[in-house]
């Protein structure tokens, strides 16, 4: 890998790193936010949803724009919009104090719109820059940085909250603005991949892709969405249990929440590095990862002991690290560069919807029974593994 490509990869790794902070950094702050604003647990969970659903809706538009005008021309403004949303939410909390919930939600929606043009487009750009085995490795590194963001964000969120709970919102512009400058100056975008077709013709091309490979793509989309749905739902559950049951908060809670995410990030990096351009192996590893998630979720039913359930979460983190980098390579390798932006963005959308739905669903199930919650997740992961095994057909990425 030459120096220019190394800089490009380094710049692209910053994009998912900052994107994932949008949710993960807020998870340890939610109990304090809930108490300060006097809102319910469900309303607190909507702070995550308000970010993720707008992102999921806007991502396909961002994908089309990146195919039509260029990836960097979408990523850089998106990072600036992301920063603006953080400023709005933070100022709302400062000025309106306990009445700031609507303004915070508005800021989170704006952040979600900005996030739509970040990680999915960075994934498409990485697939434009790298080919073959180098693509699998690059996407594994990017997924690892995504995981690293999840690892660092609970700790970072807990540390920033020591100043004041709403300080976390002001961290976004401090990160997004310099990252936008780095991407613009250091990432080299290949020329000749733009798709200047009219929207109607462009969409016909996308429909043609799905008519040929729709089953594989949809099964891969489902697997990615379910993986993140379970992971973020369980993190929301763990954050609440640590604070409400064991009175563990602050930085210590951040470190506890980071452990399963560290396992996921490490596994993602190793998987991306080892899997290379062997498509059959990618499918097998992704299915194995889903089975591991099912086993981890099922094991958590055995005991309500927090240490035991933390071990189960580590297993789920390991399984997630097997699934995600393989899906990235299967999806990006299935399509040409001219349509890659929109297809990877659609994948990003369903990932965001998985994250968005997780906390509210788990918040609801927590009120019924943690055993039912874990059992349902185990069955869901098992069914998804079966679908992936029977439906996904892979071809060698190029």
UniProtKB/TrEMBL annotation:
Membrane topology per the record? Answer: Multi-pass membrane protein
Pfam short name (any one): MFS_1
What PANTHER family does the database record attribute to this sequence?
Answer: CHLORAMPHENICOL EFFLUX PUMP RV0191, PURINE EFFLUX PUMP PBUE
Q: Where is the Major facilitator superfamily (MFS) profile domain?
A: 8-396
Localization per Swiss-Prot or TrEMBL = Cell membrane
In terms of domain of life, where is this protein from?
Bacteria
| GO CC list | plasma membrane
Entry annotated with the keyword Lyase: no
Source organism (scientific name): Desulfuribacillus stibiiarsenatis
Protein name, please?
Answer: MFS transporter
Q: Can you tell me where the transmembrane regions are?
A: 46-65, 74-96, 155-184, 217-238, 250-272, 284-302, 308-330, 342-366, 372-392
Q: Name one GO molecular function term.
A: transmembrane transporter activity
């Amino acid at each position: 890998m030459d120096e220019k490509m190394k800089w490009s990869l380094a710049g692209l790794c910053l994009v998912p790193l900052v994107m994932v902070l949008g949710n993960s950094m807020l998870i340890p702050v939610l109990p304090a936010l809930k108490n300060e604003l006097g809102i319910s647990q469900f309303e607190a969970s909507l702070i995550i949803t308000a970010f993720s659903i707008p992102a999921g809706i806007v991502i396909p538009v961002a994908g089309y724009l990146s195919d039509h005008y260029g990836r960097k021309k979408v990523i850089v403004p998106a990072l600036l919009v992301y920063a603006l949303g953080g400023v709005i939410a933070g100022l709302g909390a400062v000025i309106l104090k306990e009445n700031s919930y609507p303004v915070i939600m508005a800021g989170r929606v704006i952040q979600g719109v900005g996030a739509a043009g970040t990680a999915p487009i960075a994934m498409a750009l990485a697939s434009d820059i790298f080919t073959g085995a180098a693509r699998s490795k690059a996407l594994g590194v990017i997924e690892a940085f995504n995981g690293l963001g999840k690892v660092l964000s609970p700790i970072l969120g807990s540390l920033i909250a020591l100043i004041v709970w709403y300080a976390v919102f002001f961290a976004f512009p401090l990160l997004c603005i310099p990252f936008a400058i780095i991407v613009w100056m250091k990432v080299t975008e290949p020329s000749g991949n733009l798709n200047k077709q009219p929207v109607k013709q462009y969409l016909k091309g996308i429909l043609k892709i799905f008519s040929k490979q729709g089953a594989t793509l949809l099964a891969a989309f489902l697997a990615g969405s379910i993986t993140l749905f379970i992971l973020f739902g369980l993190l929301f559950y763990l954050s609440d249990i640590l604070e409400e049951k064991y009175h563990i908060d602050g930085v210590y809670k951040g470190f506890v929440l980071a452990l399963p995410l560290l396992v996921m990030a490490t596994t993602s990096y190793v998987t991306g590095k080892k899997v290379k351009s062997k498509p059959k192996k990618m499918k097998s590893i992704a299915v194995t990862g889903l089975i591991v998630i099912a086993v981890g979720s099922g094991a958590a039913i055995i005991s309500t002991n927090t240490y035991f359930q933390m071990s189960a979460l580590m297993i789920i983190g390991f399984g997630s690290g097997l699934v995600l980098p393989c899906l990235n390579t299967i999806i990006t390798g299935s399509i040409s560069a001219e349509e890659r932006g929109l297809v990877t963005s659609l994948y990003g959308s369903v990932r965001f919807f998985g994250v968005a739905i997780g906390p509210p669903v788990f918040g609801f199930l927590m009120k019924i029974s943690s055993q039912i919650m874990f059992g349902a997740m185990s069955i869901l992961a098992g069914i998804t593994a079966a679908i992936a095994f029977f439906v996904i057909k892979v071809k060698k990425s190029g």
